[in-house]
Amino acid sequence: MALVALSAVAFGYGPTAHETVGGVADKLLENTAAQTQIASLLDGISLEKAAVMPDEIKAWDRDGADDLGAFPHYSQHPEIDKQLRAFWLANQPTHDRASEAPSHHWFHYTDVPVVNPQKYSDGKAGRSRWDIVQIIGYCVDVLRGDAPEENPRKITKPVAVILLAHFLADIHEPMHVGAQFFDEAGRPVDPDKTQPGFGDEGGNTIALRLSSGTPEVLAKRSLKLHGFWDNDAVVANLSLPVGLAKEQRSQAIEKAKRALIDQFARNEPANWRVPANVPLNKYAEAWADDILPRAREAHERLEFTGVHPLEQEDRTVAAGVAVEKSMPDQVGYTDWAANIVREELHKAGWRLADLLRQVVASSGTTTKSATIATSLAAPSPSPSPSQTPVAPAPAATTTIASTPFGEYPANYKEIVSAWLKANSLDGSNVQWQGEPKPAETPAGDGRKLSGYLVIFNTQERSGLKTRSVLIRDGAVISNSGF
Q1: Distance of CA 364 to CAs 42, 227, 371, 391, Å?
Q2: Residues 115 and 240 in one domain
Q3: Is 0.85 topped by the overall pTM?
Q4: Does 38 lie in the same domain as 92?
Q5: What is the pLDDT of residues 243-286, one digit of tens each?
Q6: Among residues 103, 110, 67, which one has the least CA distance to residue 88?
Q7: In which domain, by residue range, is 406 found?
Q8: Which residues contact 379 (CB under 8 A, 6 or more apart)?
Q9: What is the DSSP string of 290-322?
Q10: Is 305 found in the same domain as 451?
């Protein structure tokens, strides 16, 4: 077991990156009912802390999870500690792909071939029933009650939140989603279209030789491609002075991390939302597809040399050296990777907060304090008696940013469809006229209602008729054209 632990495939982003993603989500969920529900599930543990636990419990790989005094031991949270140990025992480390029980290491990654542009669903090589894409969806199902808490993987609702807090960072690391496969001559191959090939396990078996970067990075002769992305590309965003002592470096990292969390939480990242028609338990596949082009370019910017099959314990991998190329954009590999990591961590924090908010809102996991927090939220203005009755949204699928118009209704189609059904209106042929827009409409009593205006057409006997509804915080509060 110790040997298996030492050769673990993917350790994921380092603690700083995971804490950053969890910390951003903590800030975005502040003073919300979702935060109260999550805190109840985690016994008060923050997402920032929870985000590193799935890597911390890898320490049990050496001697098992039975020693209650061995690191890690979450003594202040005995129920969480108990559930994590049960999870580890149900998913003990192994490289045997025929094993009836999966290894918890498999949950951290998927190895989609990057030699050709493709999506996660385009093939089977490198994917598995228990890869990161599938396990994120499984955790969502557990939290929503679509999968039982009493499951063979011992993923309870608290454990599911802990895993999601961690895996949302991992799935935004290019080397945790894409991998290169090589034939025996060291040539890149697509194992779904040609011969199977040998994988580089997300860059874990490839030595990296850079021509640009910090002195610390350039001095690492044992640097692995995967480890560079997990750690060095993250640290490059912290602007740390060279030559700091260990204690000074730790303090500088913590200060820089706090600044990064604050900056990420204040500024909404570009292109982070998942299309409205994607179900929650399929978000991970959309995220994997989003980062695969990054994984492909991360390999294309390197020249692979001396690649050969290498027997490693009970499997064959592709080992070799990757040398930094001179690129037309004249951007060094270290700078390019640091920029990618910065963008991806930013998106991961917002996506984690958004996913958890949606999941706990639709799970029925409600505590007394969560109910109180909900009742204290700013109420939406009451509609006038002449307005059609308001139907609540099926699930509060919203983004995080709070505005004078409430929260952006990413699931506006579901909200409108549910409202139409609740009011016995035909919603079978709705033609949407664009995304929701912030707007104010008169309430009929001199007041103004603010929210997001959704305009659409419905089929009438005389033809198409334009209608609109105003949505605020997941519910229709006024309508027009009916």
Answers
A1: 16, 40, 11, 18
A2: yes
A3: no
A4: yes
A5: 778 788 888 889 999 999 999 999 999 999 999 899 999 999 99
A6: 103
A7: 402-480
A8: none
A9: HHHHHHHHHHHTEEEEEEEEEEETTEEEEEEEE
A10: no
